[in-house]
Design brief:
This protein is α/β, with parallel strands linked by helices and 416 residues long. 35% of the residues lie in helices and 25% in strands. The protein has a single domain (4-410), classed as FAD/NAD(P)-binding domain, CATH 3.50.50.60.
């Protein structure tokens, strides 16, 4: 049965939900507070990453966060501040950072990533968006120290056990697989299972397709209030209009926690800011990589190479910290000695806010209290990778079909 559906949020997750809901025959409206041309869905590394099986909330991360708290150029930075929501989130993060909880999360993260990888390919084959950049060259985890290599090898062994394609490369094999660029690293773990895209190409094509298919896309329109009656959302009030719909999908990224409060729901979520630098000059880099010690992502995209990284918890803001941009640039030259990011490229750096749940797993599905609300947020660093899978799962939830996978680990009201 066709329904009227409002999706709050026009990032990769919201647009993917719109795509699959429209395919199911629903009348869909997307509302976004921006013009949908910037933010996390545009500045990310473009990875499709079944290899990213370890959630952000893992043993040792809190210790690293405290260690790096007063170093604003560190890869994982928590700005010291008194904020009750942040303090509660930090406590939940700490409770989620156990070996037992990580072990439970690993197969779940792998499964949803594999579903999403397949869906990206299906979208391309469908021709709905026309042609767009989508490759599966894998991901290189480059390491300069033996300790970093040994640490990643443990992850690689888990990935292999789960059936993912992984290879260990020494320096000679690394140089052979990346012959056009000089790399200063001891070696790499090559996750052949991974793919990559160009977000700044994919997003406009998805928006164009949705509009042509009849999906209404409202931009520069902020949701100001959400009216409830008898545990049902009756109206969405924005800066421009008032809307009614049978179903509401909350896919507002880092703003999802603020909007949840309007419905008397406490959704633990924090904005984790990331940065990107684009280089339109030739780099010779052919395979995506993560510079392990620096936690910097490198992606050869369509027409440029992107360098992205850092996880900064400093609230929702668009402030560009020059020291963090500089840290990314320095890491690039450290691993690729012949590549130097110039002042203009640094000055044009952009940032985006990733929505981070305490345990690193997204919120997907119905809550406990509001009957016509579906959550689709909290994806942390995997938002791009998990966009299509989340959209598909949302459509299945609303259609009351059996989901493509068990979504109970993503329950929005789960305890931490």
């Amino acid at each position: 049965m066709a329904k009227s559906i409002i999706i709050i949020g026009g990032g990769i997750v919201g647009l993917s939900a719109a795509y699959y809901l429209h395919k199911d025959g629903h009348q869909v409206t997307v509302i976004d507070k921006s013009d949908i041309s910037k933010g996390a869905s545009f500045v990310n590394a473009g990875y499709i990453t079944p290899s990213h099986i370890i959630p952000l909330a893992s043993p040792g991360m809190i210790a690293k966060g405290i260690k790096w708290m007063f170093n604003s150029s560190s890869p994982f930075y928590m700005k010291p501040r008194f904020d009750s929501d942040f303090l509660k989130w930090s406590w939940y993060f700490h409770r989620a950072s156990t070996k037992e909880k990580v072990a439970k999360a690993i197969p779940v993260i792998k499964d949803i990533n594999l579903i999403s990888r397949e869906l990206f390919e299906e979208i391309k084959v469908s021709g709905d968006l026309g042609d767009f950049h989508l490759e599966r060259k894998g991901l290189l985890m480059l390491y300069k120290t033996a300790s970093a290599g040994e640490e990643e090898l443990k992850v690689a062994e888990k990935a292999k056990y789960l059936g993912l394609e992984v290879q260990l490369l020494d320096k000679e094999k690394l140089d052979a697989i990346e012959p056009q660029v000089k790399i200063d690293a001891l070696g790499a773990i090559h996750y052949e299972c991974d793919g990559h895209t160009t977000p700044t190409e994919f997003m406009p094509k998805m928006i164009s397709y949705l509009k042509s298919a009849g999906v209404v896309v409202k931009t520069n329109e902020e949701v100001m209030d959400i009216e409830l009656t008898n545990n049902t959302i009756q109206q969405i009030i924005t800066t421009k209009d008032t809307y009614k719909a049978d179903e509401i999908v909350l896919a507002a990224g880092s703003w999802s926690g603020l909007l949840s409060k309007k419905m008397n729901i406490k959704l633990p979520i924090q904005a984790g800011k990331g940065y990107r630098i684009n280089m339109e000059r030739p780099t010779g880099i052919a395979i995506p990589a993560i510079l392990m010690e620096a936690k910097v992502a490198v992606t050869p995209m369509k027409g440029f190479t992107r360098f992205a990284g850092t996880m900064e918890f400093s609230g929702i803001n668009e402030i560009i910290r020059k020291e963090r941009v500089g840290a990314i640039a320095n890491a690039v030259t450290d691993f690729y000695p012949e590549i130097e990011i110039n002042a203009t490229e640094k000055a044009e750096a952009k940032s985006g806010m990733r929505p981070v749940s305490p345990d690193g797993l997204p919120y997907i599905g119905r809550g406990n209290s509001i009957g016509n609300l579906t959550f689709a947020t909290g994806h942390a660093m995997m938002g791009w990778s998990l966009g299509p899978a989340t959209g598909k799962l949302v459509a299945e939830v609303i259609a009351e079909k059996k989901p493509s996978m068990d979504i109970s680990p993503f329950a929005p009201m789960r305890r931490f």
